[in-house]
Write a structure and sequence with these properties.
Blueprint lengths: L9 E8 L24 H8 L6 H32 L11 H37 L7 H7 L12 H11 L2 H8 L6 H7 L4 E10 L11 H13 L4 E11 L10 H13 L3 E6 L6 H11 L2 E3 L1 H12 L3 H10 L1 H7 L3 H34 L4 E6 L5 H9 L17 E6 L5 E6 L9 H6 L1 H8 L3 E7 L5 H13 L9 E6 L15 E2 L8 H15 L2 E8 L4 H9 L1 E7 L6 H12 L4 H18 L2 H17 L5 H16 L2
Parallel strand pairs: 2-3, 2-4, 4-5, 6-8, 6-9, 9-10, 10-11
Antiparallel strand pairs: 1-12, 1-13, 7-8
Helix pairs in contact: 2-3, 2-22, 3-20, 5-12, 5-14, 12-14, 22-23, 23-24
Bound molecules: guanosine-5'-triphosphate (GTP) and magnesium ion (MG).
């Protein structure tokens, strides 16, 4: 049950790991904005200072409560003193006229004391919270932080020092090596494309092994052709002008295709005027095959390796991604340049790139250790390319800096995004590079380092595209790739069927997975409940039950740093001060006018603690005072008041 913020003593059940209190930064959506609102707009102020002082919101609330408590204590002290003076007036050395002055002085002193004590507690709590929240702030993804630190803020990889930067630059811009790969135009697809003025017309040929162990059983030739066409058209400027499935006996033939088929393909290609390249959708062609095919077609010939490499080159923005692409092309170059000198050069380059990547990996591991120390659970989101991983992360975390793109391999950099589970627990969601079928293992291997973060995650979410006709094969490809990674057997892998808003490949009830849609948000709340269950279990968190004073700094702090599952009122432990004062007031047979004063005081009290019993008391008190006007004798007055007061304590 969720109660108002300042309810009386309440049970707070939080999820917690062992005896340590979990920490995490607060929301992720609010960025600091240029201040344009009114000065008394607290929300605006909180938003503005959220980045610099994460606990500022809590501080403002705490201070408002302090102010209210001070006001209430002033009223209570004033009323209490006034009543006491009124009752003991004949023993007092001063007259009735001075009662108000004395009451005011005492009320001021009490209110000052109460306010200063609460303000100190509030500030201490907020400094502590600030320190903790600042500690984990590297995972918040607010816009202003993005602006300040640009892309580096959320990247798992911190910006390396200049020396590393120079080192990486020297590798990426090595002139000797650039000369070496200059002749290999299939490796320089991107350069080739950027030099072209018009569309690059491409013919897509999908070889299809008709029988034998290499025959694909979980897909169809047509689906593979469609994917090949999508893959090549992901390259900027490339336009598919013709596509065809070509049945072959095996993929190891000298020219892949039989002589009759090849002759037909060549004549067809030559008649297609706009065609300037042929994409043969096999993982990697041999050097001799490429040379002979290029000579036969009189056009550029590309395989999946060179196309994927071209896409990677286009989408790699960070230095780490660029280094990984540089590493990925080495096996390809090695197969093309068998000479001893070239082999030595490639070896030397590989050593240098690995060295640079290891440095970055070291920093990445440092960040990972920091995350482990701060006990931030991590959830890696993996899946086939274009299945909606990035969109799902955006939908869960509300992080507007990431956006899904209808393009293959749009995400090449592993990034972390802070989000919260329904219980409030902060979790880092890790976006990863998508998988694809028929991709040389060397190419995957070069990106393995970035997948380390996925391997070390507490939970893995496997996102599948429920609307894709090749749904089954995509699932198998991801499973195969995941099993090649050193993923612990204990790491839970939750599979979700995304894009549930589109036409599904099979009836809804045949999906064993969680059905959801990252764009419409359908199914996400149910999925998050399940994810929460898994995360709490796998990270060894458990629920604790505390009884804490309502509105206390402790509760506020717990709200910020731990996942509060539920809050409820403790029926056996009402606020002792409030109860004592109410009893005191009810026991006195007060003159009518003071009855109204006591009601006013109770209203102040109830505004501070805002609970049902305290809110009812003033009403009961007023009604009792009205009734008391008609009751003459004292005993009957008490007998009337008590039944009226008693029910209020039973809530
Ligand atoms: N209709 C619909 N479209 C979706 C949904 N989820 C993602 N998409 C779209 O699918 C496309 C790919 O989404 P991304 O989130 O970029 O997919 P990804 O898995 O991160 O892709 P890569 O990073 O390229 O591997 C985008 O155009 C999204 O708008 C969904 O639930 N419904
Ligand atoms: Mg993505």
């Amino acid at each position: 049950m969720l109660l108002p913020y300042n309810s009386p003593l309440s049970f707070v059940t939080i999820s917690q790991q062992r005896s340590e209190i979990r920490t995490g930064s607060k929301g992720t959506r609010l960025g600091s904005r240029r201040f344009v609102g009114k000065m008394n707009n607290n929300t605006e102020l909180i938003n503005q200072y959220k980045d610099a002082f994460p606990a500022f919101g809590g501080y403002m609330e705490c201070m408002s409560r302090t102010l209210l408590t001070g006001l209430s204590s002033f009223c209570l002290a004033f009323g209490g003193t006034y009543i006491t003076q009124h009752l003991t007036s004949k023993y007092l050395p001063y007259g009735r006229k001075n009662h108000i002055i004395v009451s005011s002085l005492i009320a001021c002193a009490v209110a000052y004391k109460v306010t200063s004590i609460r303000a100190e507690a509030c500030q201490a709590g907020c400094h502590f919270k600030n320190a903790i929240l600042n500690h984990t702030r590297s995972f918040t993804t607010s816009k202003s932080m993005l602006k300040k630190k640009k892309k580096a803020t959320k990247r798992m990889t911190p910006p390396p020092e200049d020396t590393d930067e120079d080192f990486e630059k020297s590798i990426l811009e090595d002139p000797d090596f650039s000369n070496l790969r200059e002749g290999m135009e299939d490796l320089n697809i991107r350069k080739y494309l950027s030099g072209s003025v018009s569309h690059i017309g491409t013919i897509v040929l999908q070889p299809w092994v008709k029988w034998g162990p290499k025959m694909k059983r979980n897909t169809t030739a047509q689906l593979m052709l469609e994917e090949a066409a999508t893959l090549v058209s992901t390259l900027p400027g490339v336009k598919v002008v013709a596509k065809e499935v070509v049945p072959v006996k095996s993929l190891d033939g000298k020219m892949i295709f039989g002589s009759g088929t090849l002759a037909r393909l060549i004549s067809e290609a030559r008649t297609t005027r706009t065609a300037v390249s042929v994409f043969i959708s096999v993982d990697m062609l041999k050097r001799s095959q490429i040379e002979e095919l290029e000579a036969a077609f009189g056009m550029k010939v590309w395989d999946r390796y060179s196309v994927v490499l071209g896409i990677f080159q286009h989408n790699a923005h960070t230095r780490e991604a660029k280094l990984q692409v540089a590493l990925a092309e080495l096996p390809y170059i090695r197969k093309r340049l068998p000479g001893e000198r070239e082999r030595m050069m490639i070896m030397e380059r590989e050593k240098r790139i690995r060295n640079a990547l290891n440095r970055l990996a070291g920093k990445r591991a440092l960040i990972r250790r920091g995350r482990t120390r701060s006990n931030l659970p991590t959830v890696a989101v993996v899946g086939y390319t274009n299945s909606g991983k990035t969109s799902l992360i955006r939908s869960i975390t509300g992080d507007e800096s990431v956006e899904g793109k209808n393009s293959l391999f749009a995400t090449l950099d592993v990034t972390a995004h802070g989000g919260r589970l329904p219980c409030g627990l902060e979790v880092a969601f890790i976006d990863t590079v998508g998988f694809i079928q028929d991709i040389p293992t060397e190419l995957v291997a070069s990106f393995r380092a970035t997948l380390e973060d996925a391997v070390c995650a507490d939970v893995v979410i496997h996102v599948r595209d429920a609307s894709h006709p090749d749904y089954e094969l995509q699932g198998i490809t991801v499973h195969e790739t995941l099993s090649s990674l050193p993923l612990s057997e204990e790491t839970p892998v939750i599979t979700v069927a995304n894009k549930a808003d589109l036409t599904l490949v099979k009836p809804k009830d045949e999906f064993g997975e969680h059905m959801l849609s990252a764009t419409t948000g359908q199914g996400i709340p149910e999925f998050l409940d399940y994810l929460q269950e898994v995360v709490l279990k796998v990270t060894g968190r458990r629920s604790w039950r505390f009884s804490l004073p309502t509105g206390s700094p402790e509760i506020q702090w717990l709200r910020n740093v731990a996942g509060i599952v539920s809050e409820e009122m403790d029926p056996e432990n009402l606020q002792p001060l409030g109860v004592a004062i109410t009893c005191l007031l009810s026991l006195f047979s007060l003159p009518f006018r003071l009855c109204h004063l006591s009601s006013f005081l109770l209203i102040c009290l109830s505004s501070t603690f805002s609970t049902v019993p305290f809110a009812l008391l003033p009403l009961l008190r007023i009604s009792s005072s009205v009734l008391s006007r008609h009751v003459q004798t004292a005993p009957s007055r008490y007998s009337l008041l008590l039944p009226l007061y008693l029910p209020s304590y039973l809530f």
